[in-house]
Amino acid sequence: MEASKDLLIQLKVNSHVLTAFKKMRKGALMRLYVDAFAIIQLYEMEIAKQARDIQSEQGKKAVAHKRGGPITVAQARKTMQSREDDEIAKDNRILVRL
User: In this structure, how many other beta carbons lie within 10 angstroms of the beta carbon of residue 22?
Assistant: First the structure.
């Protein structure tokens, strides 16, 4: 970078042209940096979207249900949670009796 500036000075280029050259060079470097940063962010956003889509699909998987109908994983989790809540309530009733 400095070599091109020194070359321009040796060629006795006007100081206004040198100033314009510096600004253009600085702007071009910043543009390269911003473009590279934008590409990285876009890539990371795409990876995050794919991960969300995969997690969403896993939550919608149908699993076998002993009553015969298919249910989603989310529904199965709710069923398990309600069973756990029922067991806790049953244990609390037993403790109250003691």
Answer: 13
Whether 62 contacts 70, CB under 8 Å: yes
If residue 72 lies in a helix (H) or strand (E), which one and from where to where? strand 71-72
Q: Identify the H or E element spanning 67.
A: none
Residues 5-46: pLDDT tens digits?
666 666 677 778 778 888 898 999 999 999 999 999 998 888
Tokens of 68: 């015969």
Q: What's the predicted TM-score (pTM) here?
A: 0.43
* Segment 42-51, tens digit of pLDDT: 988 888 888 8
Q: Phi/psi at 78 (nearest 5 deg)? A: -65, -40
Backbone angles phi, psi at 65, to 5 degrees: -120, 140
Q: What does the block give as tokens for 9? A: 């000075």
d(Cα 50, Cα 7) in Å, to the nearest integer?
51
